[in-house]
Amino acid sequence: MSRLVNGVKSFSTAASSLLADASAAAARSVRQPSSFQVFRDVPELRQLRRKLIQNDRTMGFVPTMGALHEGHLSLIREAARENTDVFVSIYVNPTQFGVNEDLSSYPRTWDSDVEKLEKLNEELSSLGACTGQITAIFAPTSKVMYPTLPPSSEIDGHGSFVTITPLARKLEGVSRPVFFRGVTTICMKLFNVTTPDRVYFGQKDVQQTVIIKRMVKDFLIDTEVRIVPTTREADGLALSSRNVYLGARRRAVGLTLYQALSAAAEAYKAGKASRDDILGAARSVAERVLSEQQALSPSERALYEVDYISLADPESLEELDLVDFKKGAVLSTAFKMAPLEETNPGEDCGLGDGKVPVRLIDNMILQPQS
Amino acid sequence: MSRLVNGVKSFSTAASSLLADASAAAARSVRQPSSFQVFRDVPELRQLRRKLIQNDRTMGFVPTMGALHEGHLSLIREAARENTDVFVSIYVNPTQFGVNEDLSSYPRTWDSDVEKLEKLNEELSSLGACTGQITAIFAPTSKVMYPTLPPSSEIDGHGSFVTITPLARKLEGVSRPVFFRGVTTICMKLFNVTTPDRVYFGQKDVQQTVIIKRMVKDFLIDTEVRIVPTTREADGLALSSRNVYLGARRRAVGLTLYQALSAAAEAYKAGKASRDDILGAARSVAERVLSEQQALSPSERALYEVDYISLADPESLEELDLVDFKKGAVLSTAFKMAPLEETNPGEDCGLGDGKVPVRLIDNMILQPQS
């Protein structure tokens, strides 16, 4: 295993340009990881999948954009618990990034991703027959995933797309109009390639979970969608590939998303049902922390903008004035963490030295209550 | 077999309303046809499909909107030649009809469709082991195919869609902006339900063949697209479900599409490569026939409008000024046959008494030549 990781390390630094694929390293490496196969193209993966079906094995699929963290691993663990085999895809999908969005700054970490998956397979194999294992990594090139036109990042650009509206226009879709078109398009392709018995998505991206469930239903896709609870740090911060850009100062302030949502969830649990009561609790946390930060000097503070705080129906994502206790609701929020204005010598400013703006999202499900 | 056909006949006349499905009759019928099963929903069909896969049988899929004619049968014969099993879907897809288009006037002919398929299976079984047979008819309800939102027929309406642009905007897409969105959306669903080894489409709808091939490629769908030559009457008229609306007078004049295309194809074969030379030959036929008709009295003539005559690249469908002899081209045309202005006692005016406007399309492939 370590030989593979070392073997690809020298190449991966060159793979950071916009066009190079995160996983291009895999193509150059002669060695395969010891416990799973890496596939760069479709036909061989289909062959393996066919063999699994013929042998009555079940397969759970976990699509990722790499930069794997404990959140992804929790999806894979759940997939291994429910299936004999797990396929993981690692592909940074260009069509879900807008023209001015952070495709180029999205972390590409092939070496450590493979290492984490190898370690996880060791952990899974130690559990014996009661759990499955990762069998295949699918790390395609963009030419494989977008074989004809270069994919458009313009909302009215040409291409072959799956669109799910109005769901894709709400919440995250307001500031990121092409995002969910990119997600549904790439997921349809990945599902067609892997034909999974079950697919696994994290609760963290709640709108994505709602849209994928809708896509599977509307397009009669023969798979089950499993949603796995958000993995959080001890203090509550939701894990995200983007957290590596935060650094210590913005990380501390970034916890405000969780605190604001917790305050709102508390209000709901205490019997509040109106939008003003529930979202008011969240907003007052967000506003208080921001004023505290603004009172600090530029070398001490971390500023942010609240993009939205939403209280919505769990299936349609329509904004609610009043929560129906029988149905519950989705509470969700997005903050834009601004770049640090001034940094201090020796300060942990995260990948990109605190200059990268970081958009954080989080959510909580308000469960039905009587 | 005849009992089934009779058994459903009494119901099918009531099924002509916009909302009733063409195949609703199948749901009421207790009997199954003798040589294939009719499926109204997905799970049982998937079970059959799984059994076929386990037994190493291959399946060819022929999607139709019913109103079967010899053209459809030629698709099924080809599918039976190449596969052990053939699935045929019969579903009049609402999303490929525009708001003001002819969904309500599209023929619904369940009884005779089933009869034709039964007869075809007899023919196929007489050929013995060298050909497959129709195993399943999939005749779903709209609730099965569109389980959440009622499908929109507005170009900017909401829903879950597959879009393939710019291909879908050209030729037929100009006058029918939602048409190919509807076709690709329903075909993606049908392919997900049936997971065919091969799918069969007629050359008659040339733009559809180009778009489906593109969809299968771009979405990495695990199937092969087969295109079957256009079936024509002895005089050259391309078979179409809509021909039943023509009646004798408009049918005779409708042959002009074929004659115009033939004149253009002759010019190409004679060595012409320029747009003006090739399309000029087609246009002069279309114009001559129209003037001849205009000179006749309203009770004798059939008028039409030429929607387009196109000379386009075989893959991108971009209009060509000059044909590259190495690549060839697609020659295609659409005519709108106007309703008859005056009819005569006892005249064969077709279904709808000559009052239904009929849009006819036809095409020829200009093969590469040296």
Automatic annotation (TrEMBL), chains A, B:
It comes from Penicillium daleae. Gene3D superfamilies: HUPs (3.40.50.620), Pantoate-beta-alanine ligase, C-terminal domain (3.30.1300.10). It catalyses: (R)-pantoate + beta-alanine + ATP = (R)-pantothenate + AMP + diphosphate + H(+). This is Pantoate--beta-alanine ligase. InterPro entries: Pantoate_ligase, Pantoate_ligase_C, Rossmann-like_a/b/a_fold. GO terms for molecular function: ATP binding; pantoate-beta-alanine ligase activity. Keywords: ATP-binding, Ligase, Nucleotide-binding, Pantothenate biosynthesis. SUPFAM superfamilies: Nucleotidylyl transferase. Pathway: Cofactor biosynthesis; (R)-pantothenate biosynthesis; (R)-pantothenate from (R)-pantoate and beta-alanine: step 1/1. It comes from the Eukaryota. One of its GO terms (biological process) is pantothenate biosynthetic process.
